[in-house]
Write a structure and sequence with these properties.
The protein is an all-alpha fold. About 45% of the residues lie in helices and about 0% in strands. The protein has one domain.
Amino acid sequence: MGSSCPRPGEFRAPFTAAAAGETRGATNPSFDQVGIGVLLVGAFLAMLPSVLAFLALQRSFIRGLTSGAVKG
């Protein structure tokens, strides 16, 4: 009788729903269709609001940091 637990290094779960001969995982079957450029643009757009908020409020951030460091 075999054990239902996979041996170390065997990861069968992502491939359970893949058809015979396919190597794409069941969790995201279209992963290989997304280009690196699209991922980079998405990361840049996700980061942009935080950078703009910091640049707009930079003086307030620095003032708060320095006022908390001075005793008195």
